[in-house]
Design a protein that fits this description.
Shape: globular
Largest sheet: 5 strands, mixed, barrel
Number of domains: 1
Strand content: 15-25%
Strand order of the largest sheet: 5-8-7-6-9
Number of strands: 9
CATH topology: Rossmann fold
Bound molecules: hypoxanthine
Order of helices and strands: HEEEEHEEHEHEHEH
Structural class: alpha/beta
Helix content: 25-40%
Number of helices: 6
CATH architecture: 3-Layer(aba) Sandwich
Length: 283
């Protein structure tokens, strides 16, 4: 009987092969960057060598939400070989299926030799001092989705049954990120704890107050799940949220996807500057 685990590993092999077939000779990126909602233009940093639509990569997320079109771009930033991933699967699209797709995507990166995963997202802020357009480096996260992508049989070849999460967001890489951001003059850069809700609804004002009370600084609908899968297979993670809005009930502004995309635009240049500054440290 072919198990779900074997099916997934076959999917990962196929995805890795599809990407390898398009890699320029000698191109070995040790870092991948995911681009959150409205942050696609950060990929303009890239001296692009190849663009692979997710539709050409079996098992990769085939996104359904406007602004989440999928593509993998390969190239150099400041001479460092990197991959940019535009488009991800969200738990609100159906958690079980999303978990499989995210595992295929992230474990494929691992298969290709990636060591560092730089995760970006668009997020709401729970702190008035981190307004729209701010950048918040993720120090830690709270997964309040009630879901964990690693539930079910564990594939020991990828990682342990019980994964430690005490250094989920790599302390050393974050120190490097903050120092590089400061040196590059990136404005409105802070640090905080990210809380992932399942979505797809935005939070209620009461949920925002709860998130603040339990120690969160930002809220969103992605990224903790990706971190969990990445840490399980040994990737180091660094992450930054582009603040698109204050949390529900903290301002008069109505929340919507359009507003998220608009807010992300405000943070996009700063995010690009920060991503570049970090990549330079990896050369
Ligand atoms: N909540 C959840 N996800 C988000 C938000 C928010 O306020 N803003 C951008 N993504």
């Amino acid at each position: 009987m072919v198990t779900a685990m074997a099916t997934m590993n076959t999917a990962i092999e196929k995805a890795a092969q599809a990407i390898k077939n398009r890699l320029p000779a000698g191109f070995r990126p040790k870092m991948a960057v995911t681009l959150g909602s409205g942050l696609g233009a950060v990929a303009a940093l890239l001296e692009e060598k190849a663009l692979i639509p997710y539709t050409d990569i079996p098992g990769f997320p085939q996104p359904t939400v406007a602004g989440h079109e999928g593509s993998l771009r390969l190239g150099h930033v400041a001479g460092v070989p990197v991959m940019f991933l535009k488009g991800r699967k969200h738990l609100y699209e159906g958690p079980d299926e999303a978990a499989v797709t995210l595992k295929v995507m992230i474990r494929t990166l691992k298969t290709l030799g990636v060591e560092i995963l730089f995760l970006t997202n668009a997020a709401g802020s729970l702190r008035a001092e981190y307004g729209p357009g701010s950048l918040v480096a993720i120090t830690d996260h709270i997964n309040i989705t009630g879901f964990n992508a690693l539930c079910g049989p564990n594939d020991d070849d990828w990682g342990p049954r019980f994964s430690p999460m005490d250094n989920a967001w790599d302390k050393d890489l974050r120190a490097t990120l903050m120092a590089a951001g400061k040196k590059a003059g990136v404005k409105n850069l802070g640090e905080g704890v990210y809380c992932q809700f399942m979505g797809p609804t935005f939070e209620t004002p009461a949920e925002i107050r709860m998130a603040r009370a339990i120690g969160a600084d930002t809220v969103g609908m992605s990224t903790a799940v990706e971190n969990i899968i990445a840490r399980h297979c040994g990737l180091k993670c660094v992450g930054v949220s582009a603040i698109t809005n204050l949390g529900a009930g903290m301002s008069d502004e109505a929340l919507s996807h359009e507003q998220t995309l608009h807010g992300a635009k405000m943070a996009e240049q700063g995010m690009a500057q920060l991503v570049r500054a970090f990549i330079e440290t990896q050369g």
